[in-house]
Amino acid sequence: MNKIHAAITAVNGYVPDYVLTNHELETMVETNDEWITIRTGIKERRILKGEGLGTSDMAVPAVNGLLKKRGIGADEIDLIIFCTTTPDRVFPATANILADKIGAKNAWGYDLQATCSGFLFGLATGSQFIETGKYKKVLVIGGDKMSSMIDYKDRATCIIFGDGCGAVLLEPNEEGYGVIDSVLKSDGSGVPFLHQKAGGSVSPASHETIDKREHYLYQEGQAVFKFAVTNMAEVAAEVMERNNLKADDIAWLVPHQANKRIIDATASRTGVSPDKVIINIERYGNTTNGTLPLCLWEWEDKFKKGDNLILAAFGGGFTWGSIYLKWAY
Ligand code: UT7
Known about the structure:
This protein is α/β, with parallel strands linked by helices and 329 residues long. It has helices at 22-26, 33-40, 55-70, 94-102, 118-131, 155-158, 207-211, 221-241, 260-270, 281-284, 291-299, and strands at 5-14, 18-21, 44-47, 79-83, 108-112, 138-145, 163-173, 178-186, 194-196, 217-219, 252-255, 308-315, 319-326. It is built from 11 helices and 13 strands. The radius of gyration is 19 Å and the shape is globular. The structure holds oxa(dethia)-CoA. Oxa(dethia)-CoA (UT7) binds at residues 31, 35-36, 39-40, 116, 155-156, 159, 221-222, 224-225, 228, 258-259, 262, 286, 314-316.
């Protein structure tokens, strides 16, 4: 019997309607379109507006659309891995909330927290359940409502992040298509540079934490930039080298959309030419767990069966990694 790989057999995405442009940000903090464009490549981002809406509310249309595309019912899903840094609630898992909302009655699920590398970690984890033969249909979702933890008084962070969600379906493939290899890394010494100060068990919510604005994302941008630029490029190159892939063998480089300059550095290190690098940061900014599946969703029509894709990400924690997969349809 041939080896079972976990192949992506459907992809879909959802971004909220509201467009927060650089020009609108100019009215909120001291910034300007030129600075944001040159330093990040971002022109606009989407924001989920509306009382009581959370990350799962973006996953519902993303997943319902995916199921329709694949022509299957929610009751056929075995497992839901929801990669998010902005879960609906601290508990229970957003995967459970989503399963109920879409009617995935036969699925179990859990949330996976690995910040911007979450979707990669989820893809690698979900693949294991397929490769062992244990499950036939695994949903891996990457989504974040970053606007729920962004301080719109902090110009260093509010210009970067946006809201969005994407989802893929993993199914067994015995023809050699699917997830082939991964290099995944975690380094907790990166915590000081990118984290949320309060709201967890170390510093539960109190009047004081609210007054000190500690429930917002805290980032030391320059330090994170340095780590990201080196490490994301390194792992992408590593996964290519150990699979004997040259730049010309790569159909698409799918980088996490954190900063256009980090994307360019990764492309340059791998040697992949600019026309093969997927970039939509100008329209969505950094949607954290959402960036990679949203890229796959938007480029799906351009992919061909057998295309070699290299996915790469870097995020808080620190976490980073790269996945090599062969597109299956
Ligand atoms: O996905 C999760 C991982 N996160 C990342 O990968 C983010 C990595 N970091 C970055 O992308 C960049 O560091 C930023 C985009 C966050 C910042 O860009 P930078 O080129 O590193 O700028 P900087 O922090 O060094 O700031 C340069 C100057 C400073 O002014 P002075 O001290 O030189 O006078 C800032 O105060 O730019 C100023 N500045 C701004 N000016 C206008 C910072 N933010 C803004 C702003 N508009 N929004």
